[in-house]
Specification:
single chain; 223 residues; alpha/beta; globular
Length: 223
């Protein structure tokens, strides 16, 4: 059976474990899903430089998995290496940022993003601008927490509720996107606290990848 590989480009196994738990409801659909951690990555990807530095290692890992792969999900909100990997394979390749935005647009009119650090926001804005969705963006607000700090459930949940409420009440967001794969386990509590649909990016990308695989649809048909 071919496998959908969900690759966490940072080296934190705890982040990968959270991703694995988040996508568990999507298992049992006839396609094996396996999460992999990139050992050469930093503990958390928090800047454009870190995102760029992992690309060669991510491409090498994907190449080693190519023969077993039905498709790939890049599980970092900056979508590092997304277009490079699409150049290297005919298999479906989905990035969690791109898929989360596409999903959010089907759940509300204006989406808000809960980011980790203020330094993450400019690279998000570049991506949203390239996608042509700036007129649907309510705002992107940061928690002020790094990737590793997201493991503190009490602090993280409180900050996510605070920032999510600002996006809803001040910025007019009617759907939220969690802007880091390390937030995966907080979707349910955040949705319940705020009364808005919340998109967990790894779930969004994995669900889309499964559909692509089932339909035999890829970015390079006929190759």
């Amino acid at each position: 059976m071919s496998t959908l590989f969900v690759i966490n480009p940072n080296s934190s196994q705890s982040v990968t474990d959270g991703i694995d738990a988040a996508i568990d409801p999507l298992r049992g659909m006839g396609i094996e899903i396996t999460c992999r951690t990139l050992p050469e990555g930093p503990p958390g990807i928090e800047s454009q430089a870190q995102a760029d530095e992992v690309v060669p290692h991510l491409l090498a890992l994907a190449a080693s998995l190519e023969d077993q792969a039905a498709g790939f999900v890049i599980a970092c909100f900056g979508d590092p290496g997304l277009y490079a990997l699409r150049d290297r394979t005919t298999k479906p390749v989905l990035g969690i940022q791109e898929c989360s935005v596409a999903t959010a647009l089907t759940l509300g009119q204006r989406f808000g993003v809960v980011s980790i650090l203020p330094a993450s926001i400019p690279r998000h804005m570049r991506s949203f601008g390239a996608m042509g969705v700036m007129d649907r963006l309510a705002a992107d607000r940061a928690l002020g927490l790094g990737v590793m700090e997201l493991a503190d459930a009490g602090t993280t949940q409180a900050r996510m509720e605070e920032v999510g409420a600002e996006l809803r009440d001040r910025d007019g967001a009617d759907v939220l996107i969690m802007g880091c794969a390390g937030m995966a386990r907080y979707r349910g509590p955040l949705e319940a606290a705020l009364g808005l649909p919340v998109v967990e990016p790894c779930q969004a990308a994995t669900a889309m990848a499964l559909g692509r695989i089932r339909l035999g649809q890829t970015h390079r048909p006929g190759d």
